[in-house]
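Pipeline run #58 for the internal structure catalog. This entry was flagged by the ingest filter as a single-chain record with no existing model, so it goes straight to prediction. Upstream metadata was stripped on purpose; only the residue string is passed forward. Reviewer on rotation: M.T. Logging verbosity set to normal.
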Amino acid sequence: MISLSQRVLTVLQFTRMALVFTAISNGWAAIFLNARVTGEPISLWYMFAMTVTSVGLYTFGMTLNDLIDRRRDSQIAPARPLPSGRISVTTAHMICILLALLAVAGGGWITLLNPNNWLSLVLVVWTLILICFYDFAGKYLVAPGLLALGLIRFFHATIPAPSLAIPWHPILLFVHVTLLSTVCYGLEGKRPRLTAIHWISVVGGAMLMLVLLMLFLFSRYPDVDRKTALWVTPRGLLSMVVGVSVFVVIAVMIRRRNKDPRAAGRTLMLYGLLWLIVYDALLVYGYVSWKHALLILAMLPISLLSVQLMRVWAKLVDLSVKPQYQRVR
């Protein structure tokens, strides 16, 4: 008989709940940065609504990916919840649908709390569409899929602040996730194989999107002097430079310490996702205050502990399962 502990662990593994704090961090940072420009008070209810949205979007993407890849995972990752049979396909579909509805409900809640942000709900739906595109088709198309991963983070970070009051935050997330995913894709040797054409497509596509975004922002805010005074602060720019530089050093160290490219790719992806929290904290420090930055940064040890807790929990569950013996004929 399956214990309650096994059931809870299976659901947490299936939804990748340990890393959901990277998405929550992105949302909270966007709220703090937007409040810095608009002068609006930070609402705890607004933060909670964005947390619900972030949890729904992130876990929906993870569960949908596993549902689509369940046949392939049965060959290369049979221990995962779906291929191992620890969770049924029907239950997995129900969880996936409920998580999508949770994200939409969170977006609706955000709009109710701030009617001027009606675009937030539209962005939630658009982000869900991007997630579906990546899981169903993008990841098989290489460059479009890698760009989609970056765009998912970009639009997720714009949900609580559609005005893009400080655009460097979602832009940094977009560039980081796009390049990180591309490098790890190549290291892990995923198929189709990453080629020079793919690299050119990813970098060129990212640059094109950034140019279009900046043209849109400057056309929307004709008062460039006033707006750029908030966009370009010395401490804000320094925080981004420090964040990117330190992560590049960490990435090089991970690659050098792991002779196996696949192991290096998996480790780099984990640390790269966790580093999103660091970016959030640094930008909030650069534009808002160190107190708000510490609140964001607190999610980093929580996420790290969650990852380790899940691993220990899984080992304990395995030890608690009675061995199955077969009669030898």
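catalog note: The chain has one domain: 7-299.
catalog note: DSSP finds 15 helices and no strands in the chain.
status: ready for reviewer M.T.
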